[in-house]
Write a structure and sequence with these properties.
The protein is α/β, with parallel strands linked by helices and 462 residues long. Helix 9 packs across helix 10 and helix 15 packs parallel to helix 17. The chain is built from 20 helices and eight strands. The termini are far apart. Helix content is 48%, strand content 7%. The protein has a six-stranded mixed β-sheet with strand order 1-3-4-5-2-6, sandwiched between helices. A two-stranded parallel ribbon has the order 7-8.
Length: 462
């Protein structure tokens, strides 16, 4: 906690889960912590986010930072920006981790903030991983944010729309942080390598293509880039004839044989990637479909989850344009279940390629949605008498089955019966697209509908 002389709370230590912003960074701290930017000018990111004309720069200059939440992937600068705000603002700063803090700590901090406000002092509360607080804990912040007792700055890797309750979210400005661009990661690593005070003080030379390799390896994560650089430099063999050993791509490939992939099976990245796979399949992009499938499987996604989504896709986006897709999707699911991973990945890849290249139709999806909407939105009338079953004499006397004709006994193989309730007569739910097999189905559906209509009219004239 940061306190000025004579502060009411100057003798109080930070509560559980809180951290002070002004503590010096130990010399043996990780490189990513030592090189953490101390000013907006040092932050890598788009100008509209951290530039001189950005909302954040103007808010800091006026010391009027509103309550907000930083949303972005790991290593995109969420905690860094919160610390810069803390260093530049005149408010008391309290760092708070949702991982180790509970409702008791929240209430204690809120009471401190209320007392500080009475003394004319604002409190800036930084909550890391705010999405880990449950709804009741989030509600505890509401009255204090609304009354202006605290400026709440949250950080989350998860979509605030899903993880924060609506009342709290409506009082926060959401600042979206994108992954760090590769060229910016390279700039950060070069800065760290040359920094005499906080960095690696030129302990090694790094070949340009090694910087580029690390930039790709880091996937937009500044912390990962600096941690990998520090680890690689520390593992360089010492050579008596060279003051600065050289870091090359072969050394990096040997040191980092397998990249740790960013993935959360229950989080935002999970839904982003399955959405990317589904939409790539729908757009018939076979290469993108394979890539997103591999992204999920190589990161450890449950292959049966992917298989279930592919089965769904077969009915939703291909339907009767290629009926074999559903059969093949179920077969791929069975193959994965039978042989397991990693071998099962090829079965999923096979059906993904098949469905990406298959003719597409959402006619079945649309037809069922329209029928279901009528079920929910219209009166649920009984079936017409002609198509009701009549197993008893009483039911026959009541008219059940009256006028029914067995379709197989007709030349046309349809009796032209009115099978929908009267209020839905004439509804055409299934409208084939004309793609793939549905081209034939479309002609057949139109011919049968026309024939049934003709037979109904003949029956009415009798």
């Amino acid at each position: 906690m940061t306190s000025s002389p004579g502060d009411l709370f100057e003798d109080e230590g930070p509560a559980s889960g809180r951290s002070a912003v002004d503590e010096p960074v130990p010399s043996d701290a990780p490189l990513a912590e030592r090189m953490r930017p101390r000013d907006l000018s040092e932050v890598a990111g788009p100008p509209d986010l951290v530039g001189e004309a950005s909302f954040l720069a103007k808010a800091l200059a006026a010391d009027r930072v509103p309550s907000l939440v930083f949303w972005g992937p790991p290593g995109s600068g969420k905690t860094t920006l919160a610390r810069i705000i803390a260093a530049k603002t005149q408010a008391r700063f309290i760092g708070f981790s949702a991982v180790v803090s509970g409702i008791k700590e929240i209430r204690t901090v809120m009471e401190e903030a209320t007392r500080a406000k009475r003394r004319g002092r604002r409190t800036l509360l930084f909550v890391d991983e705010i999405h880990r607080f449950n709804r009741a804990q989030q509600d505890a912040f509401l009255p204090f944010v609304e009354a202006g007792d605290i400026v709440l700055v949250g950080a989350t890797t998860e979509n605030p729309s899903f993880e924060l309750n609506g009342a709290l979210l409506s009082r926060l400005r959401v600042v979206i942080l994108p992954p760090i661009e590769e060229e910016d990661l390279i700039l950060l690593m070069k800065r760290a390598l040359a920094d005499q005070e906080r960095g690696l003080a030129a302990k090694a030379t790094v070949e340009e293509d090694a910087f580029e390799w690390l930039g790709r390896f880091s996937d937009g994560d500044a912390r990962r880039a600096l941690t990998a650089l520090e680890a690689a430099v520390s593992h360089l063999p010492f050579k008596e004839n060279s003051l600065s050993p050289s870091l090359s791509v072969p050394i990096l490939e040997d040191l980092f044989k397998r990249k740790v992939l960013l993935y959360d099976k229950a989080g935002d990245e999970h839904f982003n990637l399955i959405s990317a796979l589904h939409k790539s399949l729908r757009d018939s992009d076979v290469d993108a479909s394979l890539y997103w499938l591999a992204r999920m499987l190589e990161a450890g996604e449950n292959p049966l989850y992917v298989a279930r989504r592919l089965v769904r896709f077969a009915s939703e986006d291909i339907g009767l344009a290629d009926p074999s897709s559903l059969t093949l999707a179920v077969a791929a699911k069975e193959a994965v279940h039978f042989i397991g991973m990693p071998e099962g990945a090829l079965a999923l890849a096979e059906i993904a390629v098949h469905m990406a290249l298959a003719p597409k139709s959402n006619a079945l999806y649309t037809a069922y949605a329209e029928a279901a909407a009528d079920v929910h939105e219209r009166p649920n009338e009984p079936p017409p008498l002609a198509i009701r079953n009549a197993p008893t004499k009483l039911m026959k006397q009541a008219g059940y089955g009256a006028g029914y004709r067995y379709a197989h006994d007709t030349v046309e193989k349809t009796a032209g019966l009115s099978c929908l309730p009267d209020s839905l007569a004439g509804r055409n739910y299934y409208r084939p697209s004309g793609e793939g097999r549905e081209k034939d189905l479309k002609a057949r559906a139109e011919a049968i509908r026309s024939l049934r209509e003709t037979l109904r009219k003949k029956k009415e004239k009798k």
